[in-house]
């Protein structure tokens, strides 16, 4: 999913492009959430005793539970979320989707076996792998969001691409997803861990595309080529080229065409009829709805509607739903604190010393993970 | 080489007390004109801008421009080790990883030195446009601190309304509401006790009490505080530090929701 190893690569060579902060520091911002990604998270994570939450007649409700409570959490922190749903997958993704299907079937078989053996951890593991976001899930979610007064957008194609376009147009501040390809689609800001559970206490990671490009000394086109080389959803990558090799090749040859011309064919096998140009076009010019034509409006929640929708068959506790609706209403009422950076222009000066240090350390210590040196606020050694 | 000598270490102690609650860490930019600091709090609601002139120091030397990332909590710890009238010297090499702080008593009988590790900090400088503020209010700093403290008991937000008649601070909350009105003082014995208002246009803005109370930590630095306001721009709260420079706080107003 997304771009293989991009997050790690950025952490290694452009650590200054990543900032970690608490969720409340993003107050007052509008944020586009990749809905399919968050639904998937909810279906996997929102569970009780290893099984998904279900209604009286066995329909899954994990996604509703997740969407309801985590949206409330965002709104309580002063964030205005807008959910963006996937449209039809692009043609080029079909082989990737096929692969995922195969893997799902494998998991199904493994699950059956595990059930026979009665191995609880294995059952848990494989049943999570079987999770799939269906059209019923998305439809139910949209219904729920409507009742909550939270806007959503239906992308014609990939949700990340739509999010990226909305950020670029200044409609929202950032894209919230775990998929790194939002950066490849040109989203200036990417937030990770936004819809994670509060209990996990994960800081929000903020990636700034401009800083990534500046530190890597790359143009956006080169960055897209790098992502294709790392491995994206739309075509194969070259076998044997990992992140390290990929960045070296890009630095040396600047484009995929040049790399193909110069690459040692004995060592590396370039896939036959490699459709990298189509993948590139998909990243540069994806199918999207013009963000200017979208109207994002946050309205008051429909408390009774929510109770009717979530309680009863779906088995949500009425007092908790009413409570949640009140929280939503409260977060909308009154004045909100303005952000200073919306009045003054931010002139970031990257810390040169830190970048240099990151470079030398990553060279010296090849195995280094995202070492401590890259963290903010550590004393010098 | 950077070296600065201050006859009263208490001054720097007060400065640190005035910013340490808003900022955990900050970069001190040193040049031959003095020491500057500009930083936003984590939530990007307020900004501290401090400037200490080189002429305000007893001795000041800065051969090359230097940016020192300092953990303010650690520095406060060191500053607690001195008495207010100790003479203080700060020293750092060019490109240094550490900062040396030395204290000596007036009679030079006791000398102590501390070395502090510096940090690598991300810097986020803000370009602050020149603004002609519609209202400039000068008032005793202790009075302002008192009003902020008193009114913050009643609500989270403080409305500051400045008109020809004077300046009104008001708030409301669960238990009720509170208003404090100050008029321009016509006669006063000492300048620092007076309230003066320069106004071209009436302004009414809402601010978070929490931040105003944090700004008031600078009260010991100056007898007067200057509030500058214009419609829909951040408030400026300025404290002049005698002979040494000034601290300015900027605070984004609270805004009405429009959608």
Q: Can you put this structure into words, describing what you see?
A:
The complex is a heterodimer of chains A (381) and B (259). In chain A, helix 8 links the parallel strand 7 and strand 8. Chain A has 381 residues and is of the alpha/beta class. Chain A has a 7-stranded mixed β-sheet with strand order 1-9-8-7-2-5-6, sandwiched between helices. The C terminus of chain A is likely disordered. In chain A, 47% of the residues lie in helices and 11% in strands. Chain A has a domain of 212 residues: Rossmann fold. Chain B has 2 domains: 116 residues, Proliferating Cell Nuclear Antigen (Box); 117 residues, Proliferating Cell Nuclear Antigen (Box). Chain B has a 9-stranded antiparallel β-sheet with strand order 6-2-3-4-19-18-17-11-15. At the A-B interface, strand 10, strand 11 and helix 16 of A face strand 10 and strand 20 of B. Strand 10 of chain A pairs antiparallel with strand 20 of chain B, so a sheet runs across the interface.
